[in-house]
Amino acid sequence: MAKSNLDIFKVGVGPSSSHTLGPMLAAAAFLQKLGTGVEKTVQVKCTLYGSLSLTGRGHLTDKAVLWGLSGLKPSDLTPTLQQEAVSLAFTEHRLRLGGQHEIHFDYRSDLTFSKEFLPEHQNALTLEALDAQGRSICAETYFSTGGGFIKTKAQLNSEQAGAGDEADFGDKFSIENTKVALRLCQDDSLNLAELSLRYELQFHDLPYIENWCREIWQVMQEAFEHGLKPANPYLPGSLHLKRRAPSMLSVLQEHNDPFAVIDKVSLYAISIAEENASGAKVVTAPTNGACAVVPAVLLYLKDNAPHFDDRLVRDFLLTGMLIGSFYKNNATISGAEGGCQAEIGSASSMAAAAMTTVMGGDAFKACAAAEIAMEHHLGLTCDPVDGLVQIPCIERNAFGAVKAITAARIALKRQSQPRVSLDEVIKTMYITGKDISFKYKETALGGLAELQLDH
Ligand code: SF4
């Protein structure tokens, strides 16, 4: 089913697309479903299930639900607005539904962290609005499926039954996988960016797409800049981690180190990943945990590519989103479903193909780069210490970016044919993800998350 891929990149709120952005958007969707019922509502109850419950506090899931119920949108978020909504609920026990209708809210009884896993998906939450007589006005269960995408129970069930939940786009062409993409590129002598643009023009006009790319790039750059000068030198949460981007920048500026090019890539990634960990505005790319990989490679190109301009940014993002759509539609981009390979691995794969394309590589080379990048993330588990998107997540973004650059350069210079296709590695990632124990899929129950670090 043809559907625009622009939302593979979206303005989101940290630290997690599945655990923060998704629940926030679910709360916003619930408000919309509630409609005029808001006026009669005196109580809202929320239950978090599965992974949303196990790592919800560390991922700010509880606060994200409050932001969504308060009518805040990701693109409008500021630290002040976020703090206002949280203080109102935590300190004054009040919630301003949709930003207007104020109700009593008791964090301890109205928000439940359930140990239960719902059978449909690891990340689930139920919202219910009640009237003055305690009668249910509206209730819905949402599943946060990764990358800030949410589905209701009905949507998930119809999708699993093969019916799909997207609008019918009639005679629009679709690009289901790499095999189809490569055939289309070969038939019309296109690279991946050109194919992706042709595809997106079915849904939006060119000025819209170009403007959207500029906005996404702008938020990426702002996240990097903000990360260099944070208001608070420490990240929130139990680990009391000091943010490293400011000192990394000082060291880079003070020393004339010929090997610093790689350190700069790490700086880009760590600065943005620290912004994400602080709960700030970033671009989900394709998830928040992996939000710094794609922009770090783009910032590296800004430093080094001979002709860096808006056109290069546009082609980079168009290529990245097309590759991201293959992971989202044919496997998963959720750490709770596939482990970190699905998040950092997908982001690295997207960035590798994007860099290869803007450096002049054809569709075959770009897909080869994407395959190489994922091949060396296979099996990567998700085990965030204390359920925070900090250790190992922040550094992992730097490694994802460096691997993407390495993969792009290997693919661009390669003289022989690759033996493994991108479709095959995507499938392998998905199967591997299914085989990984649930302990290593965003539950903070295994791996590094089992360490008792000094707090
Ligand atoms: S380990 Fe990877 S998948 Fe898990 S929270 Fe961190 S970045 Fe996301």
What class do helices, strands and sheet pairing give? alpha+beta
Distance between the termini: 49 Å
Number of strands: 9
Q: What hetero molecules are in the model?
A: iron/sulfur cluster
Specify Rg, calculated over alpha carbons.
Answer: 21 Å
Low-pLDDT runs: 164-168
Features of this protein?
9 strands; 455 residues; 2-methylcitrate dehydratase PrpD; two-stranded antiparallel ribbon; 18 helices; 5-stranded mixed β-sheet; 60s Ribosomal Protein L30, Chain: A; binds iron/sulfur cluster; globular; alpha+beta
Would you give an account of this structure?
There is one protein chain. By secondary structure, the chain is α+β, with helices and mostly antiparallel strands. The protein has 18 helices and nine strands. α12 packs across α17, α13 packs antiparallel against α15 and α15 runs antiparallel to α16. The longest helix has 23 residues. It starts with 9 loop residues before the first strand and ends in a 20-residue tail after the last helix. It binds iron/sulfur cluster.
Task: Give the gist of this structure.
This protein has 455 residues and is of the alpha+beta class. It has helices spanning 17-34, 50-54, 61-69, 79-90, 107-110, 153-160, 178-188, 192-200, 206-228, 245-254, 260-277, 293-304, 310-330, 335-338, 344-358, 363-375, 393-413, 422-435, and strands spanning 10-13, 43-49, 94-97, 101-104, 111-113, 123-130, 136-146, 149-152, 281-284. The radius of gyration is 21 Å and the shape is globular.
SSE map:
Blueprint: E1 10-13, H1 17-34, E2 43-49, H2 50-54, H3 61-69, H4 79-90, E3 94-97, E4 101-104, H5 107-110, E5 111-113, E6 123-130, E7 136-146, E8 149-152, H6 153-160, H7 178-188, H8 192-200, H9 206-228, H10 245-254, H11 260-277, E9 281-284, H12 293-304, H13 310-330, H14 335-338, H15 344-358, H16 363-375, H17 393-413, H18 422-435
Parallel strand pairs: 2-5
Antiparallel strand pairs: 1-9, 2-6, 3-4, 6-7, 7-8
The protein binds iron/sulfur cluster.
